[in-house]
Specification:
242 residues, alpha/beta, nine-stranded mixed sheet, two-stranded antiparallel sheet, 7 helices, PuuD-like, hydrolase
């Protein structure tokens, strides 16, 4: 049977086209990437954190997508004037999903906000806005169309990311929060040219985690290399299943 991949969903409010009805969703690029990797995507609605164990027991891997800012209260800071919208219910549910996935040794693939959320879940911290980073020299919210790579990253060639892309690649970028302190269970494996962490992986060989700051789901139609992140993720789930 094909692996089932749980995608942590978001909620859309006040959509004028739908008479303001709240809508649970995930960006189509994640669905396409998982399906093209020959797995079955299942979108999780934002739910009670106590139900995370039940959700994870039904799937073979967890995908965390982009979206709202991660609340700085989770890493001991008050919200700055630069903080964007947050969703505390989403934060709480996704942190529970991450911890349960790690407990069940289910592979994780985290994108943008997902990377930040996983880091915070295990004690890491964030820059609430990249402008707070003292060595900022690279544009991290690109003005170029988001399906196009906009800045270069340097990659550890021995990492999972490195085995896909080599030691350097051009990625898109659409984030204003960024990793400040990386949580202890993880190791940085890619960096922007101004030194911000662009990807990390789990240190433990028992846990399969790949987290990236860019948006591969948007680049897939124009850069086939990005599909390899989804294919690798599904292969990691199959390896765990066996």
């Amino acid at each position: 049977m094909k692996p089932l991949i749980g995608i942590a969903g978001n909620i859309l409010l006040n959509n004028a086209d739908l008479n303001g009805l709240p809508i649970t969703y995930t960006p189509q690029g994640f669905v396409n990437g998982i399906r093209q990797a020959d797995a079955i995507p299942v979108v999780f609605p934002i739910s009670d954190p106590a139900e995370a164990k039940d959700y994870l027991s039904k799937v073979d891997g967890l995908l965390l997508a982009g979206g709202q800012d991660v609340s700085p209260l989770l890493f001991g800071e008050e919200p700055s004037l630069k903080l964007g919208a947050t969703n505390p219910a989403r934060d709480a549910f996704e942190i529970a999903l991450v911890k349960e996935a790690i407990h069940q040794e289910k592979p994780i693939f985290a994108v943008c906000r997902g990377l930040q959320l996983v880091n915070v879940a295990y004690g890491g911290t964030l820059y609430q806005d990249v402008s707070d980073y003292p060595d900022l020299t690279v544009q991290h919210i690109q003005l170029t169309h988001f399906e196009t790579g906009a800045h270069t990253i340097t990659i550890d060639p021995e990492s999972k990311i490195g085995k896909i892309f080599g030691d350097q690649y051009v990625v898109n970028t659409y984030h204003h929060q960024a990793i400040k302190e990386l949580a202890e269970p993880f190791k940085a494996v890619a960096w922007s040219k101004d030194g911000l962490i662009e990807a990390f992986e789990a240190k433990s060989p028992n846990q399969s985690i790949v987290a990236v700051q860019w948006h591969p789901e948007l680049m897939i139609p124009y850069d086939l290399m990005m599909q390899r992140l989804f294919t690798d993720f599904v292969k990691r789930t199959i390896k765990k299943m066996n």
